[in-house]
Amino acid sequence: MENINPNIVKLEYAVRGPLVIRAAEIEKELEKGAQKPFKRVIKANIGDAHAMGQKPITFIRQVVACVSYPELIEKYDFPSDVKQRAREILKACGGGSVGSYSMSHGIELIRRHVAEYIERRDGHASDWRNVCLSAGASNAIKNVLQLLCNDINGQPSGVMIPIPQYPLYSASLAEYGLEQVGYYLNEETNWGLDISELERSLSEASKKCNVRGLVVINPGNPTGQVLTRENIESILKFAHKHSLLLFADEVYQDNIYAEGSKFYSFKKVVREMGEPYSSELELASFMSVSKGYMGECGLRGGWMELLNFDPEVQAQLFKCISAMLCPTTLGQTAVDCVAKPPQPGEPSYELWLKEKTAVLSSLNKRAKMIADVFNSMPGFTCNVVQGAMYAFPQIEMPAKAIEAAKAEGKVPDAFYAFKLLEETGICIVPGSGFGQKPGTFHFRTTILPQPELLQQMLDTFRDFHAKFTAEYA
Fold first, then answer.
1. Domain boundary among 339, 374, 403
2. In total, how many domains does the chain have?
3. How far apart are CA 296 and CA 279, in angstroms?
4. What residues make up the domain containing 407?
5. Distance of CA 435 to the CA centre of its chain
6. 225 and 128 share a domain?
7. How far, in Å, CA of 176 to CA of 286, rounded?
8. SS3 for 24?
9. What are the pLDDT digits (tens) for 413-450?
10. For 158-189, how does the pLDDT look when each residue is reduced to its tens digit (9 = 90+)?
11. Residue 248 backbone class (left: φ over 0; alpha: ψ -120 to 50; beta: rest)
12. Beta strand 380-381 with 426-427: parallel, antiparallel or unpaired?
């Protein structure tokens, strides 16, 4: 430990931290017959839809099955569009097999389909050569962050990230030795992003580092907000004014629930703002098949699109990516199914649309349910879950609980979360793992448990909180 890379020691990733390790231990204890006041662990800590009972989308799994075991194409009665898609993907693979390496930045056919998806979404051209496939969005984000890993004029580089934020960013910045420059989202305006706060954060950080990047998560994780178009325009103007590389984390773009909320991609808005933004602002946008209506976390499929990158810099990025050989070809296959889903009139369309609609409709109901229940509980306030897959309620912590937490060497929200896990089996992530304003306490919970289990979880939560409050009153 005395000579390990200190950045690795500094790195923390809250959604898979000590609470999750303890949750896994409890599961093993239950399997061995341990007597506890609950029968199962509810993992509300991470956005893993299938682990929480969501069924796979049939079209995606049928195509993945066919490319994995091509004999199924001829021997099994899959729809004709599934078979055709599998044949096209296999033809684009070396040796006609998904067991071969692809190009390091992805199979060209699938990159072209992603570009077509972006064009349909935004109404503006997308060059497939600026699309790079990845093992989920996370790998692509980390690859672009690495471009900023250098000191300039004796000062380190910094990247602006929202607080609260998804811990991938804080962990990656720590790993790469980049300065974390936090800007606070405004909880009072449903986690809105104020430009004055961006200016404050940038001004303060510029005294100790060269701020070179700005991360925006839309829809928000862990906060569930959806940015308005006007807000996006003001963010783009800010990034252009300060020559910042903008990271647009848009992996939840299908997950929009609240009435009046609508997803606008940063790419679409910057194109429609015109000059000088449309040709000068450097933008990297990210998408994943792990979220949305698909929830295919384990297949590890995603992409990024680069806009206005210096061609030589982009070439260096792709060179760096080539050292990792290629993202999984089954993940790329899932990406193809998302970028080019069944169309009206095709055999798989009706079932695909039915399954997609059912998933998003159920998530919509659960988003409302979870906010309503938390807001009905004394000591809680929870903003409307406009999008994504999480709620991030604020909790009033009794003074005695804060003292008890200090005595155990824990931050108060982690103390609460450990108590909740041990007494109910519910695993959440304390707000301190995402960042929060000093003096406030939060936690993140997913909305992913299926409706019956979610209702059970919320009822248990209500009983626990009443007991906790009485204990530390």
1. 339
2. 2
3. 34
4. 6-54+358-471
5. 16
6. yes
7. 20
8. helix
9. 999 999 999 999 999 988 888 888 888 999 999 888 88
10. 999 999 988 889 889 988 889 999 999 999 88
11. beta
12. unpaired
- Note whether residue 298 is domain-resident: yes
Q: Rounded to an integer, what distance in angstroms lies between the CA atom of residue 277 and that of residue 288?
A: 26
Question: How far apart are alpha carbons 91 and 93 in whole angstroms?
Answer: 5
CA angle 95, 97, 100 (to 5 degrees): 80
Residues 6+ apart with CB under 8 A from 312: none
Q: Are 62 and 81 in contact (CB under 8 A)?
A: no
SS3 sequence of 352-363:
HHHHHHHHHHHH
Same domain, 398 and 333: no
Tokens of 12: 């923390």
Band of residue 12 on the pLDDT scale cut at 50, 70, 90 = low
> Rounded to an integer, what distance in angstroms lies between the CA atom of residue 251 and that of residue 60?
18
For tokens 């796979």, the residue is 56
- Residue from 57, 91, 290, 354 nearest 83 by CA: 91
Of 45, 44, 27, nearest to 36 by C-alpha is: 27
- The residue to which tokens 């956005």 are assigned: 47
Q: Tokens 């906010």: give the residue.
A: 371
Q: Are strands 283-288 and 390-391 parallel, antiparallel or unpaired?
A: unpaired
Contact 300, 328 (CB under 8 A): yes
Instruction: Give helix 58-68 / helix 329-339 axis angle, nearest 10°.
Output: 140
Tokens 């108590």 belong to which residue? 419
Give the predicted TM-score (pTM) of the model.
Answer: 0.89
